[in-house]
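Final report, results section. Input specification for complex C-07:
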Amino acid sequence: MRDNKNKWLLVTSAAVLALGTASLASANTLQNTIQRGAVQCGVSDGLPGFSAPDDQGEWQGLDVDVCRAVAAAVFGDADAVRYISLNAVERFTALQSGEVDVLSRNTTWTTTRDTTLGLNFTGVTFYDGIGFMINRDLGVSSALDLDGAAICVQSGTTTELNVADYFRANGMEFDPIVFDTSEQTVGGYEAGRCDVLTSDTSQLAALRIQLSDPDQSVILPEIISKEPLGPVVRQGDDQWFNIVKWSLFAMLNAEEMGITQENVDEMRNSDDPDIARLLGQDGNYGEGMGLDANWAYNIISQVGNYGESFERNVGMGSPLQIERGINALWTNGGIQYAPPIR
Amino acid sequence: MTVQHKMIEARPAPGNTVGPIAWLRINLFSGPVNTVFTLLGLYLLYVLLTPTIQWAFINADWVGTSRDDCSREGACWVFVNARLTQFIYGLYPRTELWRVNIVFATFAVLIAWLAIPRLPLKRWVALATLVAFPVFAFFLLYGGYFGLRVVETHRWGGLMLTLILAVVGMVAALPIGILLALGRRSQMPIVKSFCVVFIEFWRGVPLITILFMASVMLPLFLPTGVSVDRLVRALIGITLFQSAYMAEVIRGGLQAIPRGQEEAAAALGMGYWMRMGLIVLPQALKMMIPGIVNTFISLFKDTTLVMIIGLFDLLGIVQAALSDSRWLGFALEGYVFAAFMFWIFCFSMSRYSQYLERKLHTGHKR
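Structure output:
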């Protein structure tokens, strides 16, 4: 009787332990994904330009394109994705518990998240941060000209503090006009209570469309805080980590080499060794990740390069009209940089 | 002296007691105070309704395909129009919508059959609705058999998902609720305490917590690789929660039946299930209709909570559509549409329950 009881205790505690470590020791994600036939991708439950269903019911957005790129690399089919919409609270649990393979949901890369949650950030898809929107008529082209401006800001956000820091650091004064919600903030800006509206740039672009005359306002190029957004995977599966990381790098490298969705087939015959390596014409660089040589070709032909994805979803080709700014490639004055494929 | 050999013809009522003018005088202008209130009410209606009608109809844009077709002076129903398929079917593949339509149509026919008194075979149709239809609906919606493409539940959404959640919740919660209510009144200590604990536990926790537990915590307790579908998790959560509420509504009805009824049935030699099934429950359920429908309506509206676990019910899909960068800034139209759809369903349920009450009215009410 007693033995029995002990045995049960042992089994239970073993089970609890196993559960505790399950997220860390989770098996081969690539194999599971292939077996399932689709990448399970955690996206937001609707964020303009990053992930939202379009009129046809298909998911669109910058975050969504990461999911599609991974699916293209793994299956050669960018549509082999199962989108799971997650809210901010459950996103990490969903990843830890294996409900999603990749979390691509405008998640800011921070130390705490990277080191204590059993997660790994694979790169940066969008360098977000606090920016300024201003009436075109004021003729201001840089945030450094904003000395003495009245600024509409939402209360209780880190935005307020960051803006104060920025102005103090640059020896400028400003007059904060504080509102409770983002709608009120836009209302205050529209009513002329302030000259400048401040928020995260991705957010600003979405707010701008809702103004009665969006073209009258411009978003200044300066970004004054660091909100690097990127895809996240579970710790403990380096192969899968590499796949997601290099899917993004492939898109960045493709843009750098000028390979687009349209010309990728011509580019396959290119003599440039860099291009030949990326498109699998010279050696198999997918092998180390358990993929075939066409992995990058599939991404570019089905999803496009990073620049195309950016323009289509949040850039000039989209209603959001966000400037590339620091999200431009390093060769164009931005900070998007991918290690070489060799 | 005149003698009248015929009955005197009935004369019409005096002009000031019949007709619309009299009605107005009696109901709206019967005194100075009422006259003032009537005029005030009319003024308020005018002030509130004019801009609403202006916004919703007169200045509204109805046709078009994109935001450029909206003048922004009134409501832009173009948005709702462009998204209507999505609001109803969620992200269900466009080519497979006929499957959902068949399920909708079958359901409507079955419900209509049950609701129209003249049609025969009620018992069989009811059985089909409760047993065969859910199986049929599941296979048709999910697919994977008979050459149908599999449509995973994460693509289900919109009104379709709201209806699935509500109907499954209602259909499953009623029998479980009846059993729990009977169990709670039972003399058997184990059955009784199980039912009490079950009811008090599920009733004591907010639905949003249950859904959150089901979506966030449950996956951590399951072994890796084993995952229960989100929709199934939500359905189980809603059913358990709802059956606890239902049990208490039904227990209230059971208590209203005089003890003599059950004793008389026992005296006739009926066993427990016969006493309950033939004597007590038919009388009790009839009286509980307002309570049960009340619970159903609140369940129907509670289904919107699944939004927080990432399922796109009607309200959720409207919100998701609002964040499409091509349609930013039409929140009001989207929410008005969602509210209107919810109102249609809740109001129909309410009307049907009133009809049922009248039909089953056998002299209980005083």
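Residues 58 and 74 of chain B are 8 Å apart (CA to CA). The radius of gyration of chain B is 27 Å. This concludes the modelling results for the funded period.
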